[in-house]
Structures are given as structure tokens and as C-alpha cells.
Design a protein that fits this description.
The structure is a homotrimer. By secondary structure, chain A is α/β, with parallel strands linked by helices. Chain A has helices spanning 13-31, 35-40, 56-68, 91-100, 115-125, 143-157, 175-184, 204-212, 223-229, 246-259, 298-317; strands spanning 46-51, 72-76, 105-110, 131-137, 164-168, 191-195, 216-220, 232-235, 275-277. The two termini of chain A are 14 Å apart.
Chain lengths: 322, 322, 322
């Protein structure tokens, strides 16, 4: 039975530790320049990268991970044509066709919240050997992003236990905030401070999840105080494209510029060992002056994404329990 | 001199047998998990997949076939920009440039009926070593689809001789029906029943071809009777995007829903050893309830497509006569 | 410190000689059919092909070069979505993310004149090991095109010194004319004849560059005389898409048809050892009747592009000084 990566909640603490260790190994091997050794991990295997929504960044991260490991890739960032309005094929039919081409892994990005579940169900029902990885489904889940976020924190603090994590910006529309909150729920004594304009607060389902898992959280609109208390600052962009009310979009943009932008002048507020993260792309919500501060980790975080995806690919194909 | 795959008619019965045997070998090797053995077939060779019309399904089939065999791929599903209205390059010039990059195989999909012939002519005229494969040209030909269809039938019945093949749905606009009819013409005692609304009957050129090759055929609009007589049911979707008369399109859609949709309730009409095929994508013309019936072979058929393309790639590059 | 390919002017005569020799070696190895030897050059390395403007031809040239050498490729011809108006990421941020995925080479095509410089600066500033190749930036530079043009001339005449080069057609809007003029400035006793309608004359910055480097040039609108004097005819298409004044565009089109089209009837004007070049795509400015004349070298020129790109890739990754 194949194992799939569907949602952030599915990972155990032990599983995460195994992935982190494997990601460290990937980094060390790649940095050592042993290309041939690197490629022996998954030489001759095949990935299908099926993106119904274009996301060059995520696709390049997965495909670079695969290629470094010797895995071949067939990809599209235009898969919506596969089941176009005109032709009207269901996701289920498309995935069955793909699985029949015998890729070792299907990486799926799709606009529907439950696309990854549906795809995995078809694979399991019909006994295909393909592993499915959810590379972003609707506004709900982006589990490999959550794992790479946790990995970035773990690299800075050894453990996630006991940390104060500030999540700020557009908490309503960001998929990454949701997935990371689910993962943080696995660790002990984590405290989450949500910082946003009231209009862009995090969804109540996440708050309920945190309460169920006895995770402390606070909500505020005071960036300054949050920055002072933070071990981890996880900042996000305004997802203007998801705000349909134009007046609200305009107002939120003004709010962000005035009260939710991290600038050089705020760096003195931060603890010396704090880190600043961002899922990227970054617009203006973190000033480029901040980039050179050693606490700014968002580009390292993106790179960690590739190592985490390498680790997950190796785990799935070599059937390491995670 | 390179050998090209241009049209379904070019295959001999003996050539088809060789391709089918090679496809069986591909399947067995891939299922055995010997990835390294698989990749030795075409290691280090190069395919150009040039799609002037996007067709994710067909492109993934060819590219997966290539990658499993160790063949590298450079591809576009957006080649119409190559010879855009603005830039105005001819297909001939484009193909000459491509052939000069020395791919072992060019897989071409194009909107013009004679695109593959024109491309092959340029390759031969200027002495390039590239093999051309027609992956769908205009409304006329899709020869690898015809071969995979014949292979799917051959796997179920050992031989195609003596079978009754029902072709139903939109026979006017479907390229696959045309290509398969040409191939069936190579076999003995095949009988074809065309089943469609009168407005969507198969073209007279195909009927003339069948008469020239002394293939028996009938035309009707009675799905029930056809299903009872069929060894092979080859069902197709309504190509609404090709029906420009909106009233007709609407009427045909109603007709299909009422009288040309295969549902669970029709399965009792079928012979026990009959098979149901479909080139996919499937809309509503076969109900999903039918999918679990062992006679439903359309997903296996899609998978067969990859094995057939593997066999054809190996035949061309290793210069096996087919 | 990585080495980048940013502009045509950066090459020395000695560096060009090394690239030409390496391109000859690539050609010989590929023609000998030693695929495995070919792939040992760059086996296991990785290219990112990031095209903000689609250019199937250039992308296929780079990707085929890479694949023949055993280099893997992750590519997009749709990178503008990466920093879309909606998401608003800067080129600098995008390149930093890409470089973090540790490709050996980034091939960048972008609409801004200084995009390649900006990208290279980010790579150097943050100490990434990636090499950047400019595959066309704005209307200014396309350095690998210039090198392949020079290589095509060198193959026909052994040296570029002492040649009379006619550059004709749309000299105002063509990027290739600019880049090649810069390179020709490196050689001795080269004479350039610019032939175009007055409205499409070459930019004054190029003329100043030629004067600074003491390169003789003339400007005229007389194609016949120019063809008689030419060792090299470098003809270009009318870049109608860049002429915003519709009246002018229409008039220029008429001019080209009447007075700036090379036809079979002009071939007798040419020296026996002259060569005709064109960066392609070709519209009607060279008649297809000319293609079979042995002096027509535009398709060989396109093929040379792949060999030059192979040579440049090997030089960069193996750190050969060029």
C-alpha cells in the first residue's frame, strides 16, 4: 500500500525528526559536491508534477529536489486543460490515467480543498503503486510547506518545544499559516501570537484545533509588542487576489503599509536569537533592508524546502516510515 | 534513412505483431521493477515533444514512456508561439531548426491534417537523422492511438480477426475512430457497427476505405442492439467544441444523455467476454458505475498507450522494422 | 566565484577561440554517436531555464545542449507568473530562491535590458555557486546568439579578420544585430555595411561603439550593391511587433517586400564564397528558394547555436576560462 502526503496533521513528532535528519543528510551530500552519490538515491524513478494552478516556485522546488536525486520528471503547470470545461474530465479519471503511467510519485497542486484526498483515494482503490504528495490544495493544506517551516525553526532552535511563534500579516487567506499551526500543535509549550488587522484574523477552525490540542494562543493587532516577545516571526503577504471586496483590499493594503510592515527600524525590537520567516513571495511587508540581518531566514527557508522535499521523496520511494 | 510514424494505414499486420510483442516486453520489465534494465533501452537519447495544441494526457504518455526508457525529453505544449502570427515562421522552418538540435525522435502534435507529412518531408529532404512521430494532426490521424487501441483488443482476444466492433458516440468529429477504422481494415472478417445520431455519422471517406478493403460495416442509431452484438464496444465523447452550430450541439447533448450513454443498466446486454473501450477523456457518455465492471478497459487502454509508445520509440531508435 | 555570461562585449578573442574549439569538439562527439561519452561532460548537474518571455527556439537550444551533455533541466517559459502583478515579487527575490535550489547554471530570459546584470549581482552578493547565462534581455543583449553568429562566420572563413559583413533588414529593433556588432568590434579590418530603410537604421550607440573601436562601417539602403560586396550577409526580419506606429509598420512591410527581400534572382550578385545568415525565425525576407543554395547557412547557424551553448555550459561548469 503506498503512503501519501496529504495534510500537515498526519505527521508524528518522530516522523518529523526522521525527515529532518534525512534533510540534513541531503544538504550535506549536495554541498559535498558528490553528484553521483546524490543521484543514486532515486536513480531511474519517475515523478509526475501535475499543477492545476501554476506555481513556478513550488514546482521548481519539487523538480530540483527530484533531479538532484536522479529522479526523472514529467510536468505541467497547466493541468486544468486536462479536465477543461470543454472536455470535462473529473480529477479522479485524470489521476487514474496518470497513475497508470507508473510514476513513483505524483505531486499534485489543485484549487479544490479536498483534491489530494480524492486523488489518494483513487490510487488506493485501484491498487496503483504511486505515492501522492499534496503540493497545495485550495486554501486548506500545503503540508510540505509546513514541514519545511518546522524544519527551519528546528535548525535554529534544536527543538520547537517552548517557543513563542508570532504569525502575522494576512492570516485569513494564507494556506501556510493554517498548515504550520497544525504542525506546531504537535509540540509542547508552544505559544502562538496571531498578529493581523481584525479583518484578516485566522479562521475559527484553526483556533478550535489549537484549543483541542491545548496550544496557547493570543490574537492582537500590535506588531511591536509581538516582535518583542517572538522567538519566531512568521510573516506573510497580503493575499490581495483573494480579497474580493475592493474597498477592503484597498484598506488592508494601507493598514499593511502603515502597521504590518517589518522594517530595519523594527529590528532592535527582536531578541538576538529570534528568526524571521516568510513563505515567499514577499511583497513590501518585509523591507529589503531586513534581508541582510542574520535573523532574516526566509531565503534559507525556501532552500530548506528543497531539502525537505528531497527527504520526503526518498522516504516515500524507499518506504521509510515517516 | 529515418523511419517515421505518420498514419495508421502504414502499419502491416506483421509490424503490429512486433510492436505488440515489444509492448508486452516493456510491461513485463517495468512491472518487474528493473528500472536500470528499463533505462538501458534508450539511455542518453533525446526526444523533442512539440505540441502546437496542448494535450497533457498524450504528452505525459509519450514523456513517461521516454523517461522510463532512459530517454531525455525537451518539450513544449505551447509550440504555436514558435510560429506565431506575429513572427510567422512556417512549420517547415521550425522542424528544420528542431531536427538540427539532433533529437533522436520528434513527437509532433499539430492542428493541420497534413502537418506530420510536411514535417517528415523536411527531415528526409535535408537528411536529418530524426524520427518523426505523429501525435495527432488536425482531425485526421492519431496513429499511436490506433495502435494502442488495436493492442488493447489483441490483449483481450488474442487476434482481431473475426471480431464485431461497435464504434459509438460522435463518429464525425473523433480522430480516434478514423485511425482505428483504418487499422481494423488490416484484419480479416472484422465487422464494424457504427452507432450514432444521424448528424454525427462517420465520414464517407472512411466508409469508402472500408469498402475498398472489403470490411463489412453497418450504421445505426440503436445502441441496445449494438451492445448485444459487440465483442468490442469503442465508445467516444461528444466533441462539443467542434460543433459550431449551437442548436445542434445542444440537441446532440440531449441525444447522448438519452440514447447514447452506457450505464450500469446496460451491462447485462453485453457478452461476457466483450470489452468496453474509450479513448478518454470521458464525460458522461459512460457512467462511472460501469468502471468497476471487469469488461471496462478504458483505463487499461490508456496505460497500454504508454507501453505501445515505449515499443514504438525502441523500434524507431533501434531501427527495428515495424 | 562563479563566472557569468552577461553581454557580448565580455568575450576576448582568445576566449572565443576556446569556445569555438570546444564547440567543434561537441559537434564531433555528438556526430560520432558516442552518447555515453557526451553525457559524461556534465552528468548529474542541473540547469534552471527561466524564461519570462516564451522563446521556444532558444529554450530548446539550451535544453537540448544540456540534455546531450547529461545535464538535467527544470524549466519554465512562463516565469512572469513567478513575479506576477498580483504577487509582485522582484527579480532579485526570484533569483535568490532559484539559486538556493543549487542549479549549476541559471539560463535567464527577461524583458528588462539589465535583468541579467541584476540577477548576476544577487548571485555574487549572496555567494551562490550558480552560473548565470543571459538568454536575451530586453532589446539590448543576447550574447550566446552573438557567439554562435561569430562561430558560424569563423567556420566558413577560418578568421573574422578582414571580412565585409552586410547587416540588413530591421536594424533598429533587432537584438542580434547589436550583439554581433559588439563582437565584430573585437576583430581586425572588419567592415560593416548596414542596409535598411532609413526608418530602421541601427542605433547611434552601436555606431559610437564601432567608432570607438575603429571599426569601419557604412549605411545605405541599396541591397543590391551590398550583396555584391559582402563576405557575410546577415539578414533579419522586420520586427513588426515592436513598431507601434501602424502606418510606419505597414510602410516598412511594403518596403521590405519590394527592396529588402533576398530572392533566388539575387544569388548571382553574391561572391562564390559568401554566406547568408539569419537569426531566425525567417518570414518572407529571404525567399525559401534561397534555402538550397550552399551559401545559405541560417539553419546550420541555428544548429551551431546548440554546439556553442554546449561549449559555454561545459566551460562554465568545468571552470574553463573563456
Amino acid at each position: 500500500m503506498p503512503q501519501h502526503i496529504i495534510r500537515a496533521q498526519q505527521f508524528t513528532k518522530q516522523g518529523l525528526q526522521r525527515i529532518f535528519a534525512l534533510a540534513d543528510e541531503m544538504r550535506a551530500t549536495l554541498e559535498s559536491g558528490c553528484r553521483q552519490k546524490m543521484r543514486e538515491y532515486l536513480s531511474g524513478t519517475l515523478m509526475h508534477a501535475i499543477f492545476y494552478e501554476a506555481s513556478t516556485r513550488t514546482r521548481f522546488s519539487f523538480e530540483s529536489a527530484a533531479q538532484h536525486l536522479g529522479m526523472n520528471v514529467v510536468s505541467t503547470d497547466n493541468a486544468s486543460q486536462f479536465s477543461s470545461a470543454v472536455k470535462g474530465e473529473t480529477l479522479e479519471d485524470s489521476i487514474r490515467v496518470h497513475a497508470g503511467y507508473r510514476p513513483d510519485v505524483i505531486v499534485l497542486r489543485h484549487g479544490d480543498d479536498n483534491a489530494a484526498e480524492r486523488a489518494a483515494r483513487i490510487i488506493d482503490t485501484y491498487g496503483y503503486t504511486t505515492h501522492l504528495i499534496n503540493a497545495g490544495a485550495g486554501r486548506q493544506q500545503h503540508p510540505t510547506q509546513a514541514v519545511l517551516d518546522a524544519y527551519t525553526i528546528a535548525r535554529a532552535f534544536t527543538t520547537l518545544n517552548g517557543l513563542t511563534v508570532v504569525m502575522g500579516g494576512d492570516l485569513k487567506n494564507g494556506r501556510t499559516v493554517r498548515s504550520l499551526a497544525y504542525l506546531l500543535g504537535k509540540f509542547e509549550d508552544v505559544k502562538i501570537l496571531f498578529v493581523s488587522p481584525p479583518e484578516l484574523r485566522v479562521g475559527s477552525d484553526i483556533l478550535e484545533y489549537l484549543e483541542r490540542h491545548a496550544i496557547q494562543y493570543e490574537q492582537s493587532a500590535d506588531m511591536h509588542e509581538a516582535l518583542e516577545r517572538a522567538d519566531v516571526v512568521y510573516w506573510t503577504r497580503l493575499q490581495l487576489e483573494r480579497i474580493t471586496d475592493l474597498d477592503l483590499a484597498f484598506r488592508m493594503r494601507e493598514e499593511q503599509v502603515k502597521r504590518f510592515t517589518i522594517k530595519a527600524e523594527h529590528l532592535h525590537l527582536l531578541k538576538e536569537r529570534a528568526i524571521i520567516m516568510h513563505p515567499l513571495p514577499r511583497m513590501t511587508e518585509i523591507s529589503t533592508e531586513v534581508d541582510r540581518d542574520p535573523r532574516a531566514r526566509y531565503f534559507e527557508q525556501a532552500q530548506n524546502g528543497m531539502y525537505i522535499r528531497m527527504a520526503i521523496l526518498v522516504s516515500l520511494v524507499q518506504r521509510i516510515e515517516i
